[in-house]
Task: inverse folding
């Protein structure tokens, strides 16, 4: 079986190998033939060590495909079903799930430490317990979420992470108010999805902030009212809010420097939503007086901050109704053998989302 492998953390290239085998199939498991997968910035973060991940491993967590085989005890799925891969499944029994905060369930993270691939040289892990840069993957049945027949695999793959994360940040976590002012810092696939969510909620002004001109142009097409480089943000703040600051600012980069910028551009009493996944040793500095005096809400948003399955259903409904554009997020397509080209597209900001066709 073919898969893309990172041998050591810190390497910037993946090796596409033909001698990889998906392992772990048994009771409660399913085997999925991956048909399409997106490249998410979290994959790069795992490769460079920003996000903790055992190596060697197969990256990828934003995928869709069809069920090849179901293990004993799996009742809700059968061979031939079309599914999206959910890298953070809810167990339904832990305290977080019982409170309705299924996005905080840790059951899925437990899978990340168990190899789900092997090759003659030894075991391989799958990123976030999945690893969709492969022709097949074996996962817990809860990681395979059925999708309707009218949802193409490439669209379904986006719903598996980036779109759910960005839309949910605006709709669930921030609960953006109609008529409000919004700034989104970082306009890749997740940031663009946050922009679409803010537009859905009726934000009056949406300012997209990104250093890459092509991404700024794309943000305008997806609903931003203006798009600026980071250096132009102070002027946009003055023009849109009279210098007061935005009602909502979304940080979609995952760095303390941009989070600090986001905080400073949030109005007093406004809301800063932290969407980007950053490093454990990157600390955001705030003093106790400004925390008290400015009364700004700081809301982290994990996987869109809501019930994942309901978020999937909502996204599909909005896509069907033409209220959100998902196909437009896919700016590039490459086969798995050219995965390193996709990595370069992500690093340079050339692509919003590259679809890896498997």
Result:
């Amino acid at each position: 079986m073919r898969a893309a492998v990172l041998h050591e953390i810190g390497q910037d290239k993946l090796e596409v190998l033909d001698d990889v085998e998906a392992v772990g199939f048994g009771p409660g498991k399913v085997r999925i033939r991956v048909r399409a997968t997106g490249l998410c910035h979290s994959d790069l973060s795992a490769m460079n060590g920003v996000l903790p991940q055992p190596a060697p491993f197969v990256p990828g967590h934003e995928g869709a495909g069809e069920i090849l085989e179901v293990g004993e005890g799996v009742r809700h799925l059968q061979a031939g079903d079309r599914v999206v891969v959910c890298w953070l499944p809810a167990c339904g029994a832990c305290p977080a799930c019982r409170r309705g905060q299924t996005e905080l369930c840790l059951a899925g993270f437990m899978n990340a430490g168990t190899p789900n691939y092997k090759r003659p040289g030894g075991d391989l892990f799958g990123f976030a317990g999945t690893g969709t840069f492969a022709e097949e993957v074996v996962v817990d049945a809860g990681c395979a979420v059925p999708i309707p027949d009218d949802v193409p695999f490439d669209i379904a793959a986006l719903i598996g992470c980036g779109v759910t994360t960005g839309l949910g940040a605006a709709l669930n976590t921030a609960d953006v108010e109609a008529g409000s002012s919004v700034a989104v810092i970082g306009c890749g696939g997740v940031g663009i999805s946050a922009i679409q969510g803010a537009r859905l909620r009726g934000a009056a002004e949406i300012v997209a902030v990104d250093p890459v001109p092509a991404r700024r142009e794309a943000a305008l097409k997806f609903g931003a009212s203006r798009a600026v480089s980071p250096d132009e943000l102070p002027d946009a703040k003055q023009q849109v809010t009279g210098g007061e600051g935005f009602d909502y600012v979304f940080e979609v980069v995952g760095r303390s420097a941009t989070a600090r910028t986001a905080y400073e551009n949030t109005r007093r009493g406004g809301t800063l939503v932290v969407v980007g996944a950053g490093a454990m040793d990157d600390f955001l500095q705030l003093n106790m007086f400004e925390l008290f005096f400015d009364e700004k809400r700081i809301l982290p948003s994990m996987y869109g901050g809501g019930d994942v399955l309901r978020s999937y259903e909502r996204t599909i409904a909005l896509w069907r109704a033409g209220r959100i554009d998902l196909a437009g997020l896919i700016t590039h397509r490459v086969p798995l053998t050219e995965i390193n080209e996709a990595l370069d597209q992500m690093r340079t900001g050339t692509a919003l989302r590259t679809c890896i066709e498997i």
Observations:
- The chain has a mean pLDDT of 96.
- The CA atoms of residues 51 and 90 lie 21 Å apart.
